[in-house]
Write a structure and sequence with these properties.
alpha/beta; globular; Peroxisomal Thiolase, Chain A, domain 1; 11 helices; binds acetyl coenzyme *A; about 35% helix
Length: about 325
């Protein structure tokens, strides 16, 4: 049986750090409130001239170099982002040019914070079907440019970054063992950007009303996330007849420490087997899981043969989970 396996990872975080005490000077908030409610202490912010493809380039280059591959070795590029360089062309096409992947097809997907796992799902399907043999999947976000820096209920949460993985087929008992994606469009209003699309095209009015920034019903999103993530981690383990004790690492979407703790608690996983890096990067949406995966791999937290579980939820609403044997 052919499975897809991750053969390389890479990530990139912009240099500029915005701390909670910096935010105290911008909006009516405190380091204590942000730390207690979210677990976030600081986040990275892209420079004015950095767009999603620039962050994606750095992460992808690292993943290619670590696998001793060149851009032209890649057959397909899937970029997950809600902060693409521009409405079109796709950020994946711009990235294709930057890395010299002249033999690749390239497209973007939008599943908000679940975007990377949606990308992994598509790549896994292409590899299993034999359609493609080497695929680059990236999550890249410059959320700082769609964040309302006057809205304390959202601006404390988000950050910028990118993560990339390269997938290839394998006939070994490893790689992506199981992967699921889900959505419920009836809840789209919980998390959205009202302006700038064909519903509310850009106008002076949409700009004046700050419609080009993220709007979120935080508390409802929070409750939905806890309930859903608890269910999907239990289900994917049961479906694959895996005991939580066999799991080496849980790599959750980095949105809120309380959501992560609730999920881990539900399957009885101690926090030392959960990758948490949101305290330094905040929520980087589609980039959060590939950044965390890269960190886990590069710091030796994942070894050959380990079972790892990835899970995410986000705007759409969307949610997803993946069980991987490294
Ligand atoms: N500083 C100080 N006080 C604040 C802040 C802030 N930054 N933000 C909100 N408050 C206040 C509120 O106004 C409210 O005050 P009130 O009681 O006087 O009305 C109080 O704090 C409590 O607000 P809640 O929204 O109920 O706080 P909650 O405990 O739900 O935490 C949070 C808010 C952190 C946003 C939480 O709801 C959350 O994490 N939600 C999920 C967000 C998320 O994960 N989004 C997901 C994906 S993002 C994507 O897909 C792009």
């Amino acid at each position: 049986m052919v499975r897809s396996k991750i053969i390389s990872t890479g990530s990139y975080l912009p240099e500029k750090i915005l701390t909670n005490s910096d935010l105290e000077k911008m909006v009516d908030t405190t380091d204590d409130w942000i730390t207690e409610r979210t677990g976030i202490k600081e986040r990275r912010i892209a420079s004015n001239d950095q767009a999603a493809s620039d962050l994606a380039y750095e992460a992808s280059k690292l993943a290619l170099d670590r696998a001793s591959l060149k851009g032209e070795d890649i057959e397909l590029i899937i970029t997950a982002t809600v902060t693409g360089d521009m409405p079109f062309p796709s950020t994946a096409c711009i990235l294709q040019h930057k890395i010299g992947a002249k033999n690749a097809a390239a497209f973007d997907i939008n599943a908000a914070c679940s975007g990377f796992l949606y990308g992994l799902y598509i790549a896994d399907s292409f590899i299993k079907s034999g359609m493609h043999k080497r695929i680059l999947v990236i999550g890249t976000e410059v959320l700082s440019k769609i964040t309302d820096w006057e809205d304390r209920t959202t601006c404390v949460l988000f950050g910028d970054g990118a993560g990339a993985v390269i997938l290839e087929p394998t006939e070994e008992e490893r790689g992506i063992i199981s992967i699921n994606i889900n959505s419920d469009g009836s809840l789209w209003e919980l998390l959205h950007i009202p302006g700038g699309g064909s519903r509310n095209p850009v106008s002076r009015d949409t700009v004046d009303r700050r419609l080009h920034y993220i709007k979120m019903k935080g508390n409802e999103t929070f409750k939905f996330a806890v309930r859903t993530l608890e269910d999907i981690v239990v289900k994917i383990l049961e479906d694959n007849k895996l005991n939580p004790a066999q799991l080496s690492l849980l790599i959750p979407h980095q949105a809120n420490l309380r959501i992560i703790q609730a999920t881990a608690e539900r399957i009885g996983l101690p926090m030392n087997r959960v990758l948490v890096n949101l305290y330094k990067y905040g929520n980087t949406s589609a980039a959060s899981i590939p950044i965390a995966l890269d960190e886990a791999f590069m710091t030796g937290k994942i070894k050959d043969g380990d079972y790892i579980l990835l899970e995410a939820f986000g705007g759409g609403l969307t949610w997803a989970s993946a069980l991987i044997r490294w």
